[in-house]
């Protein structure tokens, strides 16, 4: 990425300009999108290794825009975060995810991703508590997935928000563990219940001894801290075999199932013999 400075003006190269105009289009489209009809959720099973059964599902957002087509959450969530629509999106999706969770057996949990903004104010988290209470779903069946960026800007407020959710009975998972800069300090400072080991470690596990060592160490850390470990992004039988020798508790990835529509979760729960 090359920048040319001319008379104090920063001129981007063509690639950067394309990226910027794409961001602008997505942002403007999101601003006026009918979120109620255009947003949906899919659910990816989280598998308990010992029983090979789905212990829960992670809800993942999908945006099918009639004008620009499907947009990945990796693209539109950060933009919603930036333009302020994220609060509305989180509430809408949490309400729906809880409706789906209510159709599952009582021992199946829901994992739901929160954005930095969702934890940034007391009002914000109280609205989430209101949605959980109104849903009638036992808070102990809900885990909120947070990333390090969610607690980076205002640690005290984020920590307070997380404590409110924990007191209600919800679990808290630190997502994408190992990709940030201060993971260990957060393990130490936040009331976590789970750690999700990032899929990037799994990608290299069959050819890199260091990746095996890292995953092994994280699993040992989790055991020591009494945190549940979930390894993400498991794509092959080979990867699963290695992870199993390391004693991993839960896994998630295309090897077991892709994210699926709500209707398919019921068949998946039956097919693998859960409750
Ligand atoms: P994430 O929370 O780390 O979610 C895991 C992502 O990995 C998902 O991508 C999932 O579809 C994908 N994945 C699952 N198994 C595999 C695998 O075996 N291999 C590979 N290569 N990928 C796998 P997705 O659905 O595109 O979501 C991307 C990101 O967008 C999520 O990453 C999360 O950070 C964010 N996101 C998604 N839904 C929501 C939401 O409702 N709220 C918020 N705040 N963020 C969301
Ligand atoms: Ca996640
Ligand atoms: Ca993740
Ligand atoms: Ca991620």
From TrEMBL:
Keywords assigned by UniProt, alphabetized: Membrane, Transmembrane, Transmembrane helix
Domain EAL: 23-273
Keyword Transmembrane set for record: yes
Name listed for the protein in its UniProt record: EAL domain-containing protein
Species this chain originates from: Rhizobium terricola
Lineage: Bacteria, Pseudomonadati, Pseudomonadota, Alphaproteobacteria, Hyphomicrobiales
């Amino acid at each position: 990425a090359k920048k040319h400075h001319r008379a104090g003006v920063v001129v981007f190269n063509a690639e950067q300009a394309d990226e910027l105009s794409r961001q602008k289009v997505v942002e403007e489209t999101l601003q006026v999108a009918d979120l109620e009809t255009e947003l949906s959720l899919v659910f990816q099973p989280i598998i308990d290794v010992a029983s090979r059964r789905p212990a829960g599902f992670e809800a993942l957002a999908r945006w099918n825009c009639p004008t620009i087509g499907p947009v990945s959450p990796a693209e539109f969530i950060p933009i919603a975060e930036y333009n302020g629509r994220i609060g509305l999106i989180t509430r809408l999706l949490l309400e729906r995810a809880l409706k789906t969770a209510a159709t599952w057996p009582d021992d199946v949990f829901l994992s739901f991703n929160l954005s930095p903004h969702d934890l940034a104010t007391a009002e914000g988290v109280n609205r989430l508590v209101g949605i959980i209470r109104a849903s009638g779903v036992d808070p102990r069946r809900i885990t909120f997935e947070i990333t390090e960026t969610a607690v980076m800007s205002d640690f005290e407020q984020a920590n307070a928000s997380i404590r409110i959710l924990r007191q209600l009975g919800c679990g808290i998972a630190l997502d994408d563990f190992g990709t940030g800069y201060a993971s260990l300090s957060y393990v130490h400072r936040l009331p976590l219940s789970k750690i999700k080991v990032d899929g990037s470690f799994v990608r290299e596990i069959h050819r890199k001894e260091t990746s095996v060592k890292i995953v092994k160490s994280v699993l040992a850390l989790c055991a020591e801290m009494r945190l549940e470990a979930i390894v993400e992004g498991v794509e092959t039988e080979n990867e699963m075999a290695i992870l199993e020798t390391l004693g991993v508790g839960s896994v998630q990835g295309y090897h077991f199932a892709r994210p699926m529509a709500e209707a398919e979760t019921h068949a998946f729960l039956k097919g693998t013999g859960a409750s």
